[in-house]
Amino acid sequence: MGDILGVRFHAVHGDHLLPHSRTVLSVGPQVSVFINTFLPRCVVFNNRGLGGEELLTPVTYCAANTSDLECVVQHVKGLYPSAPVLGAGVSLGGMVLLNYLARKRTESGLVAGITISVPWDALKFSSSMEEPLNWLLFNRHITKSLHQILNRHRKILEKVVDVDYVLKARSIREFDERFTSLMFGYSSCMDYYRDASPGKKLPNTAVPILCLNAADDPFSPQTAFPVSIVQDLPNVALVLTAHGGHIAFLQGFFPRGENYMERLFGQFVHAVFEHREEMKQACGIREEQMKD
């Protein structure tokens, strides 16, 4: 496959970037666990305030905001205009990627996208997380992590929010109501959730997209899957498995080695870079719609 350059959204590492290399933008740290198997050179985009970085301005990140992703894509394309770029996102990172692809349409700078375990409907995700078992297993721990991030950047964030009030939030929904929606100018948490949900925006996308979800994923209930929308979109494939939970997809009685998620990712990357013309034809995409 020649020189391969990977762009992961976490931290720049490894060898220097080479022009004319194939590029992967991955949104979400989980992707980096297995992406090196297929793409030895990658760049990772860290959301603001994560990855050990300090906030320089009182602005964080959310699933609906794609401005930072746009800056990263423009930067990479500015350095290596001839390199085709593939985007990969996991969970919230997948929401950001899909929202970006829908917003930018034919001007995304990406040749394809792949998402793993995307919460398709933010409101249904929040409601699922508030069910007793899910609250015990997930909600309270995620909320605690959000508190820790807020505390880590308290000095700069207290310029724009009442940090003590936000830290009293006992659930993800309360945190989003008191912090995230306010930070990004939404009138309410519900408005933010509606804007963050990528399912209904899929018709606006203009590149091949592969989405992997599991029916038993508590972060995305089955009623949230955009099956009826995807049925009419030749450029979007929604792969649904009976099991796999949230970013699991283990295989075998002793689940060691390559799992289904990794295998699917590798096959899709190969198809995008080695059979690009066939993929464009299958997706009904004209050359002017799929810009590098």
SSE layout and pairings?
Layout: E1 7-9, E2 23-27, H1 31-35, E3 43-44, H2 67-79, E4 85-90, H3 92-104, E5 112-116, H4 122-129, H5 132-152, H6 154-157, H7 163-166, H8 172-183, H9 189-196, E6 209-214, H10 227-230, E7 236-241, H11 260-274, H12 276-283
Parallel strand pairs: 1-2, 2-3, 2-4, 4-5, 5-6, 6-7
Helix pairs in contact: 8-9
Family: Belongs to the AB hydrolase superfamily. AB hydrolase 4 family.
Domain AB hydrolase-1: 41-252
GO biological process, one term: medium-chain fatty acid biosynthetic process
Descriptive account of the structure:
The protein is of the alpha/beta class. The chain has 2 domains: 205 residues, Rossmann fold, CATH 3.40.50; 75 residues, no CATH class. The chain is 39% helix and 11% strand. The protein has 12 helices and 7 strands. Strands 1, 2, 3, 4, 5, 6 and 7 form a 7-stranded parallel beta sheet that branches. The radius of gyration is 19 Å and the shape is globular. It starts with 6 loop residues before the first strand and ends in a 9-residue tail after the last helix. The N terminus is likely disordered.
CATH superfamily of the largest domain: Alpha/Beta hydrolase fold, catalytic domain
Strand-pairing-aware structural class: alpha/beta
In angstroms, what separates the terminal alpha carbons?
A: 18 Å
Q: Any idea how many domains?
A: 2
CATH class of the largest domain: Alpha Beta
Q: What is the CATH architecture descriptor of the largest domain? A: 3-Layer(aba) Sandwich
H and E order:
EEHEHEHEHHHHHHEHEHH
Low-confidence stretches: 1-21
How many strands?
Answer: 7
Protein name: Phospholipase ABHD3-like
Family: Belongs to the AB hydrolase superfamily. AB hydrolase 4 family.
GO molecular function: acetylesterase activity; monoacylglycerol lipase activity
InterPro entries: AB_hydrolase_1 (IPR000073), AB_hydrolase_4_sf (IPR050960), AB_hydrolase_fold (IPR029058), ABHD4 (IPR012020)
